[in-house]
Write a structure and sequence with these properties.
single chain; 391 residues; alpha+beta; Ubiquitin-like (UB roll); DNA polymerase, domain 1; Alpha-D-Glucose-1,6-Bisphosphate, Chain A, domain 4; eight-stranded mixed beta sheet; five-stranded mixed beta sheet; 11 helices; 36% helix; elongated; binds FE2/S2 (inorganic) cluster
Length: 391
Amino acid sequence: MMRVNLTVNGAAVTANVEPRLQLADFLREHLLLTGTHIGCEHGVCGACTVLLSGAPARSCIAYTAACEGAEVHTIEGLEGDLTAERLRAAFSAEHALQCGYCTPGMLVTARDIVLRLPDADASRIRLELAGNLCRCTGYAGIARAIERVLREARAEAGGLVTATSGVISAQAPDGALNPAFREADNEQRGRDDEAAEQTRASDANSARESTDPTIALRLRIQRPRAEIWRALHDPALLAACVPGARLVSAVEGHIAGEMQLALGPIVALFTGSGSLTFDDAAQRVTLSGEGTDRRSATRLSGTAVVTLAEAGSAATDVAVAISYALRGPLVQLARGPFVRAFATGAAESVARNLERRLAGEPSVVELAHLSLSRLLMRMVRQRLRRWLHLR
Ligand code: FES
Ligand code: FES
């Protein structure tokens, strides 16, 4: 066995591996990053392409042990990356995928083309794609998608920058970076810094303005507002009401703990920490935190802003604004609508549990269970209500 240290999608990874273990197998089987596909296993088809210290590489013919000290980005690590997001949208718009098997490797290569060759024309794009095989599309849609993103970049170089996000700043192998995207990236970084500052200041609006997904919920709890406000200052009581949560420590507004979530047969255990800040005048509490599920190497970070309003003398209206970012393999199983339905269900469980606890009874829901069938039913109900204008 050989010891190897890598950075994978921004997280430090140390492992003991067989000398002949290929990087693709290490990513898929040890880190569960199954977005990296394996086709030929001979370095021919390009399905396994990842970024190795910023440059595309075949992970099926790269020994993991030989990658000591390297920075690896898989398709999962490109979540939120400016160029990759534009390419994803362009792939959809131009019908650049059918079965999708080649798509992760294709996107990694396409991102490299866009960043390295800002002036590439149709024939150069096709030449650059020669190392990525697609058995379905005939390549026309893929080439059009890349052309579309390059066209947008050139237009933005004239002042039409409309970028939405950027994560990876790794340079292309020859150091060139499409200037329009560099500008957009810098702009986005400025906006990200501003958003982080707003979050630190516990401004509820920052959650809505963040580039991360946001969820807004409203609940009514059948207890007086003063009682709920006192309960929010008691982390142990709150943790007892949150399905799947376990509080490890709570010291002066800093908390540490665990949160278990079940997504169908997959159970994730997020371990992390956070902070609570209170605004007495506005009756508002802000919880910011982050955690990691070590088994899947999925990271969750977010902010929840809870604001109380009186609803008569015996009830309280609770507004919850959640902004979150999920990075890692479980993203595939926890897309926006599912997370929204899950958050709604979890918030209702917390409200129910809080009512019971404050009435001196035990909590009723123990584990946050992301049941796919239940969530699908909930989503269908919500859509029907919206279509029938019941809400
Ligand atoms: S699986 Fe690596 S190139 Fe085909
Ligand atoms: S979309 Fe099926 S192999 Fe490319």
